Amino acid sequence: MILRFALLTLLVPVATASPSLDRLLHAVEQRYNGARSLSLRFEETYTAQRRPHQTETGVLSMQKPGRMFWDYRNPAGKFFLSDGKNLYLYTPDDHRVEKSPLKDSEDLHAPLAFLLGKLNFYKEFRSFETHPEGENTWISAQPNSDSLPYAQVEFLVTPQNQIRKVRVTGQDRSTIDYSFSEERLNPPLSPTVFAFRLPAGAEVVEADR
């Protein structure tokens, strides 16, 4: 993708970010840092070498601090939950819940948690690339740490500073593409949405570290 848009792409180290990019990043931060909760519909596509594309859909709910609930409608019953301390991934076909500490997670959903934490592009990332897509703007960001499970995060931002798409590239070059719609800022969300409940007949296993 970077090669395809080479003529349109601007590589911007954090220390020398352009005024227009700086304004865009701060506007996106202001939109999401000002929210206490968020809900939206998502489409998630996973791509890896020698594996077929896998697309799933559902509803995502988020609430500060660090709570997420990915309620999958396709496949039905699957969920990915963060209660602010631990992550729980339930796959109905396996009849098991994989549990891991949020801070130790290598799941590629995890980079989205900062959208309702304290979104700070200059703290999380060391350089940026941008290119337009119609009236929207792609922002490609390189994380500050090479030890993270992801190597790049890309955001498609609208003129209203809304994030419509996110692409997370793993260190193994796998990607997860998220498309978001029907975004609602500050919807009323019950704390029970983010409370873990063990599905009937399922077992809990600790994720490998």
How is this structure best described in words?
- This protein is mainly beta.
- Helices cover 9% and strands 48% of the residues.
- It is built from 2 helices and 13 strands; from the N terminus they run βαββββββαββββββ.
- The chain has helices spanning 19-33, 121-124, and strands at residues 10-13, 37-47, 54-63, 67-74, 76-83, 86-91, 96-101, 125-133, 136-143, 150-157, 163-170, 175-185, 203-206.
- A 13-stranded mixed beta sheet has the order 1-8-9-10-11-12-2-3-4-5-6-7-13.
- 20% of the residues are buried.
- CATH class, named Mainly Beta
What is the radius of gyration computed over CA atoms, rounded to a whole number of angstroms? 17 Å
CATH architectural name:
Clam
Structural class: mainly beta
CATH third-tier fold name: outer membrane lipoprotein receptor (LolB), chain A
Strand order of the largest sheet: 1-8-9-10-11-12-2-3-4-5-6-7-13
**Which spans of ≥5 residues are poorly predicted at pLDDT below 50?**
1-16
Number of helices: 2
What is the share of helical residues?
under 10%
Order of helices and strands: EHEEEEEEHEEEEEE
Looking at the structure, what is the overall shape?
globular
Mean pLDDT: 83
Terminal CA distance: 32 Å
What profile does the largest beta sheet have?
A: 13 strands, mixed
Strand proportion, as a percent range, falls in over 45%
User: How many runs of DSSP E, i.e. beta strands?
Assistant: 13
Q: Assign the CATH superfamily.
A: Lipoprotein localisation LolA/LolB/LppX
Summed up, the domain count is 1
